[in-house]
Amino acid sequence: MYLKSLTLKGFKSFASSTTLQLEPGITCIVGPNGSGKSNVVDALAWVMGEQGAKSLRGGKMEDVIFAGTAGRPPLGRAEVQLTIDNSDGALPIEYAEVTIARTMFRNGGSEYAINGQTCRLLDVQELLSDSGIGREMHVIVGQGQLDQILRATPEERRGFIEEAAGVLKHRKRKEKALRK
Ligand code: ATP
Ligand code: MG
Questions:
Q1: Which atom of ligand 1 is nearest to the CA of 143?
Q2: 36 among the known binding-site residues?
Q3: Beta carbon of 35 within 6 Å of any ligand 1 atom
Q4: Which parts of the chain have pLDDT scores under 50?
Q5: Domain co-membership, 62 together with 100
């Protein structure tokens, strides 16, 4: 399994439809400060279902929609499509290629689709949950996040390790059950 392509349209600074073709192995994105490198990574997290505006480096969710520039008016929607090569069957779906799409309008929530079929956020999360990518996994290490981990209290650091080991969700469930 590997990420095959990523298309951004109206997402942050990517007003026009922009497609990045990716290859297996390591991809590097280089460019001047403010040219949109981190926005590409935000798009990746967003299309996989990220729900936190802060994780997307914004104040509110609609901050991901192209806000306009001096020469270009703002847009009403943001769209991202991620195509994953699944020829090794790592994702639990009967397709050799899987495209996850997320669209968001200024006046409301998000729409998701898997291979062109409208679905729920839960379906996207379940598709990705055992793949090692997806929501709430520390597979995306943001700028400054390494610092945060190094400066964390022992309790916070234990949280990171528990999450990586996959026990955090069970501990949260246990705590919830004990509170009842
Ligand atoms: P650095 O090297 O400093 O980390 P970068 O290449 O990672 O830079 P980004 O943070 O991806 O840069 O891009 C920042 C740019 O994206 C800013 O110019 C900002 O104005 C623009 N931007 C962010 N959100 C939007 C939006 N909703 N609409 C239009 N432009 C946006
Ligand atoms: Mg950056």
A1: 4
A2: yes
A3: yes
A4: none
A5: yes
- Residue 138: the pLDDT is 59
- What are the respective helix, strand and coil percentages of the chain, to the nearest 5? 30, 25, 45
Residues 75 and 27 in one domain: yes
- Residue 28 belongs to what domain range? 2-135
Predicted local confidence at residue 95, as pLDDT: 96
Q: Is the CB of 62 under 6 A from ligand 1?
A: no
Structure tokens at 23: 């290859």
Query: 166 CA to middle of ligand 1, Å?
Result: 33
Cα separation values, 154 from 54, 137, 160, 175, Å: 23, 19, 10, 19
CATH of the domain at 23: 3.40.50.300
Sequence-distant (6+) residues with CB within 8 A of 154 are: none
